[in-house]
Amino acid sequence: MFLDGDRITLRPIEEEDIEFLQKQVNDPRIWRPIGRSRPMNREQEREFFETDVCGDDTIVLLIVADSTPIGTVGLHSFDWETQRAELGYWLAPDFHGEGYGSEAAGRIVAYAFDQLGLHRIEARVFERNDPSRRLLESVGFTQEGVHRDVEFIDGAYRDAYWYGLLEDEWRSDGSD
After folding, report:
1. What is the maximal distance between C-alpha atoms in the chain?
2. Which of 11, 77, 87, 136 gives 141 a disulfide partner, CB atoms 3.0 to 4.6 angstroms apart?
3. Which tens digits make up the pLDDT trace of 149-174?
4. Where is the N-acetyltransferase domain (predicted)?
């Protein structure tokens, strides 16, 4: 365990989790909303594990509910000079709409502001992913802009909506 919530635990991803990660990230209900357009084989997932999960430049945690892995949440693209990072997450489709994502995002946002001393957290959501937009807004994020035609998914260019959350906004919202 690394961060404990009411219904979920966020823990470091271990090598034995690679199979779960690869299976889930290749599900179209996952890869389309997160902006991927290519499948990941086991070797690519292992490379992601070794470079991103085990690297010093990201924090990627497994979301666990009742001892069952259900997704990931993390922070990446750190800029320590400006004290900001980008939030990323996904949940296995069987666990969508249960509030697990909001709880996981809320826990890592609290960690980012309270323990890492970040000033700003950013997130992007691709068009047609209204549940993810609602998740971010439930945690206190504000939509700040749109990057038009930023990814090519399912034969079409897609927009990405950028969201931001400042530490003082989060604290004044009573989220801490």
Report:
1. 44
2. 136
3. 998 888 889 999 999 999 999 999 75
4. 8-168
